[in-house]
Design brief:
Layout: E1 2-15, E2 18-33, E3 36-42, E4 49-54, E5 58-65, E6 68-75, E7 79-86, E8 89-104, E9 110-120, E10 123-135
Antiparallel strand pairs: 1-2, 1-10, 2-3, 3-4, 4-5, 5-6, 6-7, 7-8, 8-9, 9-10
InterPro entries: Calycin, DUF1934
Protein name: DUF1934 domain-containing protein
Length: about 140
Amino acid sequence: MQTPVTVELKTSQLQDDKLEEFELHETGTLTQKNDNLYLRYVESKNQAQTTLKIKADELMLTRRQKELELQLVLRVGEKTNAKYKTAYGTIFLTASCQKYVLEKDGQASGVLKVAYELYSEDDLLGKYKLELQFKP
């Protein structure tokens, strides 16, 4: 069953000693299948379609915007492979997740807090923190 939800996303990224913070407020849908949550929304600013598959210990993020596509899996304490497809080719990345906390409050609301680093080969591209809140 799909449930309409509001999505609030706070993101901070630290790249080359420069900190940037973003906030996003959108509407989307939440679907629960078995123990997995699927959160889908479209960013109104740039029309990026975002799908989050949220498990108790893992986040799978897929984000599509025109010819760009990011596929990222985050598991705390593990390094995982990620792909960033562009019009010029695919960039292979590695993600290292330091923090993953999912707090569910009922069937269709909760908060997810994630901290991770992205690498291209052995080069650190940035450190990221996400705080995602969803509710009916």
